[in-house]
Structures are given as C-alpha cells and as structure tokens.
Amino acid sequence: MTDFSVVGKPLPKVDAAAKVTGRAVYADDILLPRTLHCRILRSPHPHARILSIDTSAARRMAGVKAVITGHDLPVKFGILPVTQDERALEHEKVRYVGDPIAAVAAIDEEAAAAACDAIAVEYEVLEPVMSIEEALAPPKDERIQDYGGPHNIHKLVALEFGDVDGGFARADHVREDVFFFQGNTHLPMEQHSATATYVDGRVTLWSSTQVVHYVHRALAKVLELPMHRIRVIGAAHGGGFGGKTDPFAHEIIVCKLAMLTGRPVKCTLTREEVFYAHRGRHPVLMWVRTGVTRHGRITAMHFRTALDGGAYGSYGVASTFYTGTLQTVTYDIPAYRFEGCRVFTNKPPCGPKRGHGTPQPRFALELHLEKIAHDLDLEPSAMKQLNFVQPMTRAVNWLRITSCGLDECSRRVIDASGYRNRARRPGHGMGFAISSYLSGAGTAIYWNDMPHSEVQIKVDRGGVTAYCGAMDIGQGSDSVLATIVAEELGLQPADIRLVTADTDTTPIDLGSYSSRVTFMAGNAAIEAARKMRDLLVEAAAAKMGMQGAAVQVGAGRVGDFSFEEASVLAEARFGTLTSAGSYKPPKIAGPYKGAGVGPSPAYSYSACVIDLDADARTGLVTVNKIWIAHDVGRAINPLLVEGQVEGSVYMGLGEALMEEQSFRKGLHKWPSMLEYKSPTFLDMPEVQTFIVETVDPEGPYGAKEAGQGPLLPVPPALCSAVHDALGVWIDEVPVTPEKVVEALRRKEKGEPARYGPTRFPAVPYPPAIKVEPPPKDMDRASAAAI
Amino acid sequence: MLRLPRFKYLRPKTAREAAGMAADAGARAMFVAGGTDLFPKLKRRQFEIDTLIALDFLPRGVRQGSGEALVGAGTTLAAAAREQGRTGPFHGYAQAAGLVSSPPLRNAGTVGGNLCVDTRCNYYDMTYEWRKAAGFCMKKDGDICLVAPSSRRCWAVSSSDTAPMAIALDGSVVLCGTDGEREIPVENLYLDDGIVYMAKKPHEVLTAIRLRAGAKTRSAYVKLRRRGSIDFPIAGAAVALQFDGDLVSGCRIVLSAVASHPLRASAAEDFLKGRRADLETIRETAEMAARPAKPLDNADLSHFWRKRMVRVVVEEALHRASDQTAGLAG
User: Fold this and answer.
1) Which of A321, A662, A760, B165 is in the most buried spot, having the most CB atoms within 10 Å?
2) φ and ψ at A303, to 5 degrees?
3) Do the bridges between strand A153-161 and strand A729-730 make them parallel or antiparallel, or are there none, so unpaired?
4) Is the dihedral of CA B293, B294, B296, B301 positive or negative?
C-alpha cells in the first residue's frame, strides 16, 4: 500500500476551531448596514384558489419598505428541468399550509410580521388531498397540479430487466409483503437563512444552501438576469441533510426585495417555516414479491412503490426511480421488475433526505428477505450473504459495481456483536441489516457535457490556495480538499487556504448532494494538485540538475528546497502558478429511458447489528448498542468518516423509532422541535463503528461515500430486533410504542402477529419497458484498467 | 425567526413587593422564575404581556424537619432532585423533579414554576401563525375547544411532574399576596379546567412548598414519555405509601397528564389501605386507579395508548414504592 502523509490520519476538521469558537459566519450571522428584514405570508389552507390579495394596508404600515406578491415573481422554477412547477410567491393557487403568498421587507422583523398579518387574502377553499389513496382517486374539486395524471398522479414508471416471469416459475418459494415507511424531515440545527444585496446592477446572495450552483441557475431564471450578474455564496453551514438542496422561495424573495429597495434584505426562516420548506423523506408504500430457491437464492423480484410527494415536484421524479434502483447493488437479482408511482398531496413537498429515496425500499427489502429466511428455516444473515453481489460486476439493471465490502462489513458486525450466538431472554432482541449507497450521482440534474466538479490551485510565494465550488455542509468537504492538496504537495491541511462555494470566484461543483463531493471534487483536486506538483518538481529538478522523477516531495520540501523556495523557482520559470483539475463521472448508464438515475462511479456498503430491549407492557424500545461497519473504500480522514457514520446511525434511529410528519385537518400536526420527536444526545445508544477499506479503483485514493449509506440499515435492523425480542413484525416505521402494543394484542388473539399496511392500492402502472440485462462480465476488463 | 415581544422587566426584592407590582400591572403582567416554559410561549404569542416580574429573590434550598420538608420555590429542579436524596420518604419528589424536561432546563427551571406550569394541548402549544391556520381555540384568541368541539370547557392537560407528587406527599404551598401569606393544600391549588387551572390569584406569589410524610412513608414517581431525555409527561403516577408492618396504612395515588389537573385515584387508595402490597393487590389497585383517567387526543401518541398505560405506570410506581420497604422492617 502507498504511504500517505496526511491521507488516512484522524486530523481535526480545518474549520473546527472557527465553529467551536463562534468565529464561523453562518448565514444568520450576516447583518449588513441598512439591512431590511423579510417575513413571508404563508397559506393557512392546504388547498385553495387565491381570489384576491390586498396588500394596501400592509404597505401603509410604519417601517414597511416593500411588499411583493406572485405578480412580482411570476416565473416558475424547480430543481429538475422536467418539473418547473414552483413559484417564489403563489398568486393563483396554494397547495399546502405554508405555501408562500406575499413577502414584506421592513426595518425590523416585528414590523414585517405585523405587515404580513395585515395582508388580506381571499380564498376559494378546495378539498385537500392528504393520502396516497386519495391522490389515486378522482379529485373532489380539482387536481393539485395541472400536469401528470391521471388524477393526482405525478409520475409513473415501469421497468423490467431479464426474465422475471421465468425467474418466478423456477422459484421453490415465493413470498409477498407490504411495507410502509413514514415521511420525516431533516431537522437541521440551523434554520434556512439568506441575505441579498443589489449593487451596481448585480445581485449577491449569501445563503445556507447545499447547492450554490443550482440556486444560481434558479435565480437567473426567475429574476430574469444573466448568470454573470448574480453571485451566490454559501455561508458557513449548520446542516442540510438534503433539506437545502432545492432552490427556495425565500432565496429568490430576498433578491427581488433587494432589487426593489436597493438595500440588503435578510430572511431567516422560523423553525415552523423549515417544516414547511421540508423536501424531506417521502412516505412510501411498498409491495414486494420475491422468488427463491429452497436454499434461499433469489430467482426473481418484483417491487412496487407508491410515493406521497406532497404538493410540488422537487426531486420527485428522481426519488421515484431511486425507490427501485439500488435493490440490485447489494443482492444478485437475476430478474427484476420495478413499478413506481409518485402522487401529489396537499402537504409540504417531499424531496431528498439523507439516502434519497433508498432507505424506504431498503427497509422493505431487508425485512422481506428476513421473512423469507424464516419461511425457509434459514439463518437470515447467512441467507442474505448467499445472495451478495460480487465486486467488478454489472447488476441486472446495468448498474456497475466496482469495489464491494459487503462480506467484510457483515462479518465485522456479526462477529463483534455476537449476533449469531445471542443469548435469549424475554424482551431482548438483535437484528441485522445491510445496505448500499451512491458515491455521487452519475448524471447532473440538468443535461450537460461539462465536468461535475472542478478545482483550481494557485501557488504564490509558498502560499497555496485551492478554489472549488464545493459547499461544506458540515460533512467536511473543505477538510477533504485541503487534505488531498496537502498530500500531493507534501504539506499539511492547515497550510492550504480554501476558497469554496462562491459562484464568482470558484470553478463549479454541482453541490453537496448524492454523496458526491469527496469522490468528484476529490478526484478534481488530485488532478489539479498533481499538475501543480509537476511544475514545482520540474523547476526544482532543473535547479538541482536532476531528473524530475528523482525529486522527493514531502514534509514541506521539494527536493533540496523548501516549498516556498520551490514555488519561487517555479514561478520564475513558468510565470503565474496555477493549475486546474476536473472530474466527470464515466458514462456507464444502461441503454434505457430512466437509466440516468442510479448509476454512480462507485457504491458504498454498510452492515449493522442492533441490540435492544422492548417492553411488552408499554411497547417502548430501548436500544442498547449498535454495531456498524461501513465500506468507505478508503478513509481520507477516519475521524470524519466515523462522524458521518455515527451521524447517519443517529438519524436512522430517529426515523426508525419516532420521527414522522403527521397531519391533522390538512395541517402539519406539530412543526416544532419539541413536539416533532427526534432523539436527543441522551437518547443515543453506544455505537461501535468499523471502517472497512476496499480501495475503489475510481475513488480518490480509493475513497467512496460515507455520509448517507450508513443510515439505511438502521431502520430494518431495528424492526428485525423488535421481532427477535417480542415475536411481532412492525412492518412500518416509525416503530411507536402503540404499534408494538397493538401487534402484541393481535398476536395474543391469534391474529397475524404484525402491524403494518395490509394492501397495496391499484396503481395504473404502464406496461413495463423490457430491458435486456447486460453481459455479466462486461466491465471486468475495463474496471481493472481504471 | 420568532422573536420575543418587547416588555418591561421589574425586579422586586420581596414576595410582597412582587405581588403588589402584579396587582398594579394587572393581566398584562406575568411572573418569571426559570422562564423555561414562559419564554417559548411569549415567542409563540400564547402569552401576551408588556411586563415581566422577576422572582429571582425566591428562597432556594430544601429544609428537612421531622415529618416534613420545606422546599423554597426558587429551588431549581436539578437541586431538588439532588437534595432529596436517593432514599427516604421524599424520594418520589426528588424523582419527579429529576424527570422534568432535560438537564439544561432543570438547571434553570424552579420547583415553584413547575407547580404553576401552564396546561398543555397540541392545538395550543403552537405559534400564532399555526394557531391562526388551525383556527384559534378558546384557551387563546378563539372560542371553541379544538380537541372536543362540542365541549364548553378547555381540555388542556396538566403537565407538571412535581404537582402530583406534592399532592401524594400531602403537600401544601405558601402563597404571598398583597396583604400577607396563606397556606393551602397543593391539591386545592388546582382546578379542573384547562384555562383557569389554578386557584392561586394571579398576583399571588408561590414562595414555598411543604411536603409531609411519616418515617415509614415510601414514595415513587413513574413518568411516561416518548423520549426519556426531554419530553413532558403523557401519563404518570405519583404514589406515597405509609406502612404499618406489612400492611399499607396510608396511601395516595395521583395521576399526571391525564386531565386538566393532577387526578387523585381515591377509590384505588381506599382499596389498598389495610392490605398487603403484594403482586395481585398492586395489580388490582392499578386497575382501579386507571379508571378515572380520560386522556384526550391532544398530547403525544394516541390517547387510547395513554389510557392503557395509566394502569402500567401506577403498577410500576406501587412496586417501586413498596420495594423500598426493605429498610422499614422492625
């Protein structure tokens, strides 16, 4: 193995001191002179036509400088080119409680809030649609959106790979199950916040966003300005988890208000408004049918999903595909049919949350296979292992698998936890599950042939600055960039100055979503840094009268010279020292429509065991310990990887046990941090993390993702452990105490010992597009050559 | 973000002075001790005031005498949990104080504040904007009860953990008004109404809590909530048992968070008196105690489940109180 000087070391984050001392400037810390404060009037109705908006009283109020409505921002936008269905302010129709209608800029927040309260809106209230079943039926009044269909269906997909009917025919055992995964929200500590200025005809926006580039594009479209007259800067970030991956109304609104008033305008959402901005986990109803041989080998699988999308498109088309794509990258499924459906409902729009569209089917798949193992009297973890995919293969839906540490991950957690030799006592149980996730989406959100990430490096009198559009959202992407550049130039991460997430000064990175930054910006950084290193080495070698290959770089030296001396030599020889690198994922998508969702240059793998006690009287579950192993390819910084893994476990546990978006009479039942239940510090069990390194052929130094995948096995492992403890299946999350008690009551009465959905609704899926599976070994040679 | 309203902040030096200030200021003034429940409610415009009167002069600390403990109303919940010790007749009170909210809020919140804490309802504990969208309820800005629309009263839930325990320990509170002090049983401090939930006059300052128990009293508090780390109770049981040899000679069982006031289970108390606290008797007592509880759908989790859990928490509390009797033999 190569010797690294800083890669693989558990160094603190480059921004750790700034964050713990309060020096970091978050979006809400930005307060420019003469700033006006913005508040947004939102719909109190889940579904209504707007008949009139009277802002005259608000405009006359003291301290109010501007009031805008949808008439001022009529252009529609949306993250996906195919679903441009949102307006920054809606003046025709509202589709969920919280839909923005008007905005006020005033000298302080109190004045702005009072003015919002003084805006009179006349509505024609429409029947709200609040469930998947209602959305599939003919609407009572009118459809929520004017596209998609029939009824309130947004998107339908149907794909079939290989001979599914044949696969079922040769199965010894076929099983069907229905599962439900409730929707939940990201709950970042930091609320969304944005400040805009308009100076000399140019808009500048500071925002708490994960995707400066996509915000940049949306602003250009809605404000009708060329992109070069807009600058978007990502402020220090207090957490996103996918919740800040769309362009948002408040970001557009503050820009427009700044343009109208000529003063800086700021908007920080309340916690309640963050619940309305949402874009969180889709509630998904799932039906799965699998055929297996008597030894437990999968012969065919048929997977159906129905997603409750909320009121707008957001990432929904991609989310729909994601509920059907990654089943094939953990288990070798020789024939696979997927039918997916997303519906519109009058709820805050769903979108990407950590794991984007894949934790729900992972939950269903893991429990479904475990039930099959019970049917066949096989040990569940062993039956799963029997079906694991192999490295350097293509899945039946053409997804290219490179490195794969599934076996090792499973072995590590099974051995450490004693899962297979667990002692039996009443109310105690253990559960096992595995998962996989992307290391970056293989395709951009809008079609283009350009790189997904670019890095520039400037060296000047020994000082190194790296420029990249990547947005550090707390996952540590800045630290990874600094580490990689430092590694290549023989320096320490602290020696590298970083300029990131600024559309004026940095080259593009598409953003912090789909676990793509380490992989893509990391590869771009390696390329840029190696080019710079070559310049320094060449100059040093010339001075030393040696061949470049003989010059050692490391410990702050280039050959006989200090790094600073070498940079002076190189600048004298070549002029301004700059270099650039970029990364574009390989074109590996399959030859079918919809193949763009799912391919990734590499997949991470996780395995997890949960140990818990469940109280049969109350149904309350106490998690004692979690073991998790994660194949990250290579840990560029093991401390950061552990942080990402533990954070994922924490979030998965919240989803498994308590987090849920609940609605009552069309209204979010409790948009507050006290009433929306999420585990606190004190609710966290001990987590033992194992980092597994498989050194991926395409990842930077072999690295893959760590920020999302480890969430996925937690909910199914928890349900599996509850079954182990009490003998009841809870086939939906969250596993609330009332569901456990109800399942136990059914068991006592001799009814099926489970709690969960009993049927999957009739969905008008189109005939499946039939796709020939790829030749099994098509990438073996090319993968070896990466 | 949500902001506090502008208000005047007064700092009296004595309870009498505070009561005078409150009487003068009228309905637009409130007292503030720990402020852990008050400030979020000000931000959500559940309380609309222009004056806050600080109670930071209130006595802090616990004085234990024979058969009674006097707790200064300014004692933090954290201190009350600590100072009452792990054993002895007042153990249940320490448990209750130690189970309120989360560690940081127990460091700020006071025992007086916890006795006076506003009743809760998930149609009410929301922002102004949310309540406007839902339709205002009678507890604030509206005229109907959203959890029971045909009802003429408010069903907000008593959510104090220490109040039921103080009643179980035959507690009383010292109230200071403009013309002097009076002492009333904690049980009489509460009214069965979600809006006017306290018999204390608005300007009266609660200065101390007196708990009473014999040497052979054992107490326990069991709290049910989704997260052991922070949540308000969604059901709970406070019990104090007086033993005479093997037999229960005195008994109080008080339920939390299943009504607008701490709910005494008198029939169950009568049943247990004179009996041995064995498994079967405890089970029967718990079943009787659960009968008067009628939780509604206005707190976390389903009210059906909460109703079923009352028996469980009472049973558990009775077990814990009677398990402490080891040291009482002879």
Assistant:
1) B165
2) -125, 125
3) unpaired
4) positive
Q: Cα A602 from chain centroid?
A: 16
Residues 6+ apart with CB under 8 A from B280: none
DSSP conformation class of A774: P
Tell me whether residues B226 and A44 touch, CB distance under 8 A.
Answer: no
- The per-residue pLDDT for range A77-135, each reduced to its tens digit, is 999 999 999 999 999 999 999 999 999 999 999 999 999 999 999 999 999 999 999 99
Assess whether pLDDT exceeds 80 at residue B86: no
How do A686-692 and A621-631 pair as beta strands? parallel
> Where would I find the beta strands (DSSP E) of chain B?
8-10, 29-32, 51-54, 62-65, 68-72, 172-177, 180-185, 205-212, 217-224, 235-244, 247-256, 263-264
DSSP A426: T
Per the CB < 8 A criterion, the answer to whether A538 and A548 are in contact is: yes
Beta-carbon contacts of residue B48 (< 8 Å; ≥ 6 apart): B5, B28
Flag whether residue A667 sits within 8 Å of chain B, measured between CB atoms.
yes
What is the nearest CA distance from B172 to chain A, expressed in angstroms? 31
pLDDT classification of B323: cutoffs 50, 70, 90: confident
Does residue A241 surpass a pLDDT of 80? yes
What pLDDT is stored for residue B64 in this prediction? 87
Pairing label, strands A100-106, A557-558: unpaired
Collapsed DSSP state (helix, strand, coil) of residue B96: helix
- Residue A54 near residue A291, CB atoms below 8 Å: no
Q: What is the pLDDT of residue A781?
A: 47
Burial (Cβ within 10 Å: 0-12, 13-18, ≥19) of residue B267 = middle
Q: List the helix and strand counts (H, then E) for chain A.
A: 19, 34
Closest CB to B129: pick one of A272, A618, A674: A272
- CB-CB under 8 Å, A658 with B226: yes
**Interface predicted TM-score of the whole assembly (ipTM), two decimals:** 0.95
pTM higher than 0.80 = yes
Q: Which residue has the tokens 């409610």?
A: B41
pLDDT at residue A1 is higher than 70 = no
Token pair of A27 as six digits:
């979006």
Cα-to-chain-centroid distance, residue B74: 15
Can you tell me whether residue B104 is helix, strand or coil? helix
Across the interface, do A109 and B3 touch by the CB < 8 Å criterion? yes
Q: A residues 109-138 near B, CB within 8 Å?
A: 109-110
What spatial distance separates the first Cα and last Cα of chain B, rounded to whole Å? 62
pLDDT digits (tens, 9 = 90+) for B114-148: 999 999 999 999 999 999 999 999 999 999 999 99
Tokens of A60: 């006359």
- Can you tell me the distance from the alpha carbon of B273 to that of B318, in angstroms, rounded to the nearest whole number? 13
For A357, the token pair is 């569209």
Distance between CA atoms of residues A494 and A484, nearest Å: 12
In this predicted structure, the answer to whether residue A786 has a pLDDT above a threshold of 50 is: no
Nearest residue of chain A to residue B2 (CA atoms)? A270
Residue B5 DSSP class: P
pLDDT at B326: 58
CB A394 within 8 A of CB A580: no
Distance CA A723, CA A730 (A): 8
Q: Please state, in angstroms and rounded to a whole number, the distance separating the CA atoms of residues B170 and B89.
A: 12
User: Phi and psi for A164 in degrees, rounded to 5?
Assistant: -70, -45
Q: Which of B130, B227, B302 sits opposite A677 (nearest CB)?
A: B227
The pair phi, psi for residue A542, each rounded to 5°, is -60, -45
Instruction: Give the closest residue to B272 by CA, choosing from B314, B214, B222.
Output: B314
Distance from CA of B121 to the nearest CA of A (A): 11
